[in-house]
Design a protein that fits this description.
This protein is an alpha/beta fold. It is built from 18 helices and 22 strands. The radius of gyration is 25 Å and the shape is globular. The structure holds glutamine (GLN).
Length: 527
């Protein structure tokens, strides 16, 4: 008897639907239910893999190798679930599936239309988790009124009708505060709900985002204008940390309101001990620790999972990590010492293309020669390898063949099976691969296990031709894929903490289980 919760948003974008969806998931889990959360994105790309981070923020990768929206990162970090390609659906994916079926002849004789063919495909994606879990939470990207999200709303309307009290809609809106009038305004919420009702959907619960506390009178006004019970109007005030949102929602009875709507006995409010323990740690972690994030995208969302992983690792190390973004395009040999003067360590970011890589290399040279903790992720690890080739092995022209296809010392080279690829979308080495750790290495000690599995997203790789030369000069290849022999981790064991991973550990760090590499890196930075 799976039940379905649809999360929609109105008035403005960026209200935090992902955080609310993840919080609902967390609260239902705390009551012993199994859940999954999926994201519907109304754009036509099949996935965000080909999108610029400036357009879309980070591209999050699932274990089964789907490039997805960063909201899936929130889902995993909050709830500990492992999402798959079924948790991420775009308009592009829906249309492609329908058009592929049409070409195959599945609909022979029929005219293919938005209703019912596109909406049926959307409904199929929502219902595919039927009986797998107690609750499916489906977050609909975009804002009510967008042309793009209309088919998704129609699919929800139909499902709400068909599923009766097995479906509920949580609608997120914004209540602006007008300083000049010193008033909180509910009209945009009323309009947004009207728009939703116009699409045939009555919201069951309203979550009002607000900068200031809403009085009962305001909530009552919204309730009566929108045909929603007062107890189903909850407010989501700005909080110092997104991780306080689940308990804030619980305090206002969001999960209880949903259960009542589904006709499920509500029972005791769960204690959420481990979550509260985490929040206490967070509150106690006041000592600031500055870590430099060396990358090229000066946009919070571009390295979302890395930022959250650092912050979480800080909390468990009793420090408040302050992330200093250092734009690698502006790093030069002349200013590197000054740029890194105030940070305890650097994390060199993943990325694609030439822009900003020389600055990353200069920053890494500084970290290596000054024994400053450094963590390289994906492109960051590749830059560690190139820096070492240029400045230790003496190959001044060493490079990745991504940046210089003709370099005589291609210490980072395109993977063999990538060479024949012509389509850019969804064709990188994606998803989780196994990795064996060398006995006695730093990373083996950090992980505490000889075999790990981590998520990847890249086309280029350490060139094994140079492996012996690296090792005899002090950079060790301490993590390898057992099937392909690809080098997945390098470290310089003689330094305090100098580790690069070809994979992305940030994707699997969660609130209750932060990633061991991040924990260890932050701990070293704090020494
Ligand atoms: N551009 C590099 C590659 O394709 C690194 C990718 C990344 O950092 N995710 O191998």
């Amino acid at each position: 008897m799976t039940r379905y919760i649809f999360v929609t948003g109105g008035v403005v974008s960026s209200l935090g639907k992902g955080i609310i969806s993840a919080s609902i998931g967390k609260l239902l889990q705390a009551r012993g239910y199994t859940i999954t959360i999926q994201k519907f994105d109304p754009y036509i790309n099949i996935d965000p893999g080909t999108l610029n981070p400036y357009e879309h923020g980070e591209c999050y990768v699932t274990v089964d190798g789907m490039e997805t929206d960063l909201d899936l990162g929130h889902y995993e970090r909050f709830t500990g679930i492992r999402t798959t390609q079924a948790n991420s659906v775009t308009t592009g994916k829906i249309y492609k599936a329908v058009i592929d079926k049409e070409r195959r002849g599945d609909y022979l004789g029929k005219t293919i239309q938005v209703v019912p063919h596109i909406t049926d495909e959307i409904k199929h994606r929502i219902l595919q988790h039927n009986d797998e879990v107690d609750f499916v939470i489906s977050e609909i990207g975009g804002t009510i009124g967008d042309i793009e999200s209309a088919p998704f709303l129609e699919a929800i309307r139909q499902l709400k009708w068909e599923l009766g009290n097995r479906a509920a809609c949580v609608h997120l809106t914004f209540v602006p505060y007008l300083r000049a009038a010193d008033e909180l305004k509910t009209k945009p919420t009323q309009h947004s709900v009207k728009e939703l009702q116009g699409a045939g959907i009555q919201p069951d619960v309203l979550v009002l985002r607000t900068e200031k506390h809403l009085s009962d009178g305001i909530r009552q006004k919204v309730a009566s204008f929108c045909n929603v019970d007062l107890e189903c109007v909850v407010q989501s005030e700005d909080l110092p940390s997104i991780y306080e949102v689940p308990v804030n929602m619980q305090r206002q009875g969001l999960d209880a309101a949903l259960l009542r709507k589904f006709g499920v006995p509500v029972g005791e409010m769960p204690k959420m001990e481990s979550w509260h323990h985490f929040l206490e740690l967070q509150q106690g972690a006041t000592k600031e620790l500055h870590i430099g994030l060396v990358g090229k995208y000066d946009l919070q969302d571009a390295y979302k999972s890395i930022r959250e992983s650092l912050i979480l690792a800080g909390i468990y190390n009793h420090v408040k990590v302050k992330i200093d973004f250092i734009n690698s395009e502006n790093i030069t040999k002349a200013n590197v010492a000054e740029k890194l003067a105030d940070v305890a360590g650097i994390l060199v970011c993943p990325g694609f293309g030439q822009r900003g890589i020389e600055g990353k290399i200069i920053a890494l040279e500084h970290a290596r020669t000054h024994d400053m903790p450094a963590f390289g992720i994906c492109l960051g690890m590749q830059m560690m390898v190139i820096e070492f080739a240029r400045n230790v092995l003496g190959y001044n022209d060493a490079n990745s063949s991504e940046m210089d296809a003709k370099t005589p010392h291609n210490v980072i080279d395109m993977m063999e099976d990538q060479k024949s690829i012509t389509n850019m979308g969804g064709t990188m080495r994606l998803g989780a691969y196994g990795c064996e750790l060398r006995k006695g290495s730093k990373v083996a000690g950090i992980y505490g296990t000889p075999k790990i599995s981590e998520r990847h997203r890249h086309r280029y790789e350490f060139n094994n031709k140079y492996k012996d030369e690296y090792e005899s000069n002090g950079m060790m290849c301490v993590g390898t894929n057992p099937e392909s022999g690809l080098v997945e981790i390098v470290e310089i064991p003689t330094l305090r903490w100098y580790i690069g991973t070809q994979f992305h550990p940030e994707y699997s760090s969660t609130v209750l289980k932060p990633h061991p590499l991040f924990l260890s890196f932050v701990k070293e930075c704090d020494k």
